[in-house]
Design a protein that fits this description.
Number of helices: 20
Distance between the termini: 21 Å
Shape: globular
Order of helices and strands: HHHHHEHEHEHEHHHHHHHEHHHHH
Structural class: mainly alpha
Strand content: 5-15%
Strand order of the largest sheet: 2-3-1-4-5
Low-confidence stretches: 1-22, 24-58, 60-84, 117-121
Mean pLDDT: 75
Radius of gyration: 23 Å
Amino acid sequence: MAYRGYLHRHMSSNEYAIFVVVCCSMVTTYILIAHSFRNKSDWKNSDREVQDGFATLSSLNESVQRNVKDTFVVSNETASDTLIDASHNGLLEGVLKKCPWIQRKRFTPNHFTSNRHGNALSTNSYKNHSIVFLHNHKSGGTTMKICLQRIIKARSLAPYYGLWDTNVAKAIETARVLEKRSRLYVTPYAFGMCDELDDPFCAYFTVLRDPYERVVSSYEYCKRSRPDPHCAASDARKLTLKEWAIHQGSYFFRQLQFNPSDICSDLTRRKKVVKLIREENYIGRKRNHPPCWFRHKLLLDNLLTKSEKRVLLQFMLDNLDKWFTVIGITEEYDTTLQLLQSVFKLPFYKYCSGLVEQQTQYNKKKATKIARMHNINKLKEEIKDDPEVFDALYYDIMIYQKALEIFHVQKRVYFEEVMRSLKYAFPKH
């Protein structure tokens, strides 16, 4: 314990994570090889175990080292050090009076960060939880839905319950009255679902992406897929990337403010949204029936001042690891799957490792992925220093930076749990 304390005092969290990975690789490799020699009759199986162990640990080790080099940095401050001082409690109280649903009541705190304080749930405790995936568009959400379908098929689970743009309010009401509802929920409008279900055993997870890369990917996608509700509130073919980024704004910031049973209801659309649309230079599809996310954007822009949004941002940063049992990162998708599998005891990594690499190609040509990434990086360079784009994406940038901090802690704690399990599985003789 004293040695570990020394390491924590003299290493950054990234350096400590790399140290743990290296130790884990060495110990696990030794154990697997020793195990294979002890059971020579099972040499082929043991050899395969060794190779699988090398592959998995190598992947995790590379991802940690990549994060050390490529961590998304906005400023020298941490995500918690925003411009809003914590003393502005009066302003926050006013915001929460306007939007009382933002004070979420039903959720399960982050398994890994809670563990640091000794109050995390055992992974067995999640067995009967409802699991809600908050889909942040163009952040690997489609891949996650395919992954969930594979898990459902393999484990003979009930299909996941989707809340889509056209059925949010009705679907929530249906879910409330079902005696045997699905264990899995998937939707971009999911946050607040646990409160709507009034389910004390309910856990959220999400996967986030660098906001600049997300908006570039969204722009390229929506130039080809305009009927998608994510694209339907404007026309990406007629906008520059900068205009599209401002149009989309801080998408995840708004997802965290969502009020599922009200925002997408037809009553809200008729009473509040139609009037706002008339005042808006709207070039999207279905002028009197804009997509739910855009209705939400219009309502929030007219409800909250900039100062109130900054205070609300701080509130979100303070609660992010309380609301989400696991937070994933698109850039480290396979590691995210490892964390999900560890917590929920469902085979995320087993059935979906490498899946994001397959799904991010626009067609089957091998050169397409390289060309696509080159194009994303090129377009990202065009907007990353633009102050108007930064202002539009500011809230998501700060949330993403905080998510990265949480993600590093999750990985470190996960590796420590792996080390402990190995220690108990193979005690010294």
